[in-house]
Amino acid sequence: MNPDDRHRTVGNARELEEHRGVGIEMWGEFRAMPGPRHILDGAAPTIGFLFGYYLVGAAVGVFVATPIAVALAAVRLVQGDSVRVVAVSVLVILVLSLFVEITGQGRGFYLPEVALCVVMTVLFGATLLTGKPLSCTVCRRIGLEPAEPADPATRLRLHRRITLAWFVFWVVHVVVTLPLYLADKVVVRGTVALVLGTPALVLMLAVTWLWVRDRSGQLTSRSEAI
User: Fold this and answer.
1) At what angle do helices 35-55 and 83-103 cross, to 10 degrees?
2) Which of 189, 111, 203, 125 is nearest to 160 (CA)?
């Protein structure tokens, strides 16, 4: 094996090890946050609403969803979860239920989510046009992106791609869910939301986290090599 091949092999092995290390770190943080349990807990009240709505109507759907959310919140508190997280989870269901009462329709349960998808689509799309990608601003706020990166131009290109990915993510939500909402297909809309909702959002956040961390590691490695 010539020196160039040996150097390339060592570099590939090092890159693979770095990817593995990032994946292990991410999985550890995800398990520490009890993510899977919260995803399932968040879906339970929605499933209860759909079940009640399908069998009887919107009022019964709300009547089923609210006790489920309260019961799960009580379990979380007993298990030592944060009061703030538990309160937010219950508040979300109460707000969604309130929209059912305000609109007088079952699809009102999903009105805030539809509005959120539209707003996020506009925000990510607008920041692409202005040249200040939203993902860069958000990542800096949470400390994932350094305020003064070593290579600003490269990081800006990276966040343009990430912001574009998020823009497409929200566009898909709007294209898929908005027609179902307007057509008053509550059960179908709710079923789709169980996949495109929290699970898809968590997956997208995880991919973004890996994307930003991976590129940061590559830049660091190149700087050290130079």
Assistant:
1) 20
2) 125
Q: Among 175, 170, 166, 178, which Cα is nearest to 208's?
A: 166
Q: Are 142 and 208 in contact (CB under 8 A)?
A: no
What's the CA angle centered on 82, arms 76 and 87, to 5 degrees?
75
Q: Which residues contact 50 (CB under 8 A, 6 or more apart)?
A: 61, 186, 187, 190, 191
Q: How many CB atoms lie within 10 A of CB 57?
A: 12
Given a cut of 80, whether residue 33 has pLDDT beyond it is: no
Whether residue 109 is predicted with pLDDT greater than 90 in this model: the reply is yes
Per-state percent for the chain, helix, strand, coil, to nearest 5: 85, 0, 15
Q: What is the pTM of this model?
A: 0.78
Give pLDDT, residue 202.
Answer: 81
Sign of the C-alpha dihedral computed for residues 78, 34, 40 and 178 taken in this order: positive
* C-alpha pair distances (Å), 156 with each of 15, 72, 116, 124: 23, 42, 26, 14
Cα–Cα distance between 71 and 65 in angstroms, integer?
10
Residue with the larger pLDDT of the pair 198 and 9: 198
Q: Which two tokens stand for residue 26?
A: 């991410």
DSSP state of 105: S
Q: What is the DSSP string of 129-160?
A: HHT--HHHHHHHHTTSS-SS-S-HHHHHHHHH
- Separation of CA 64 from chain center: 26
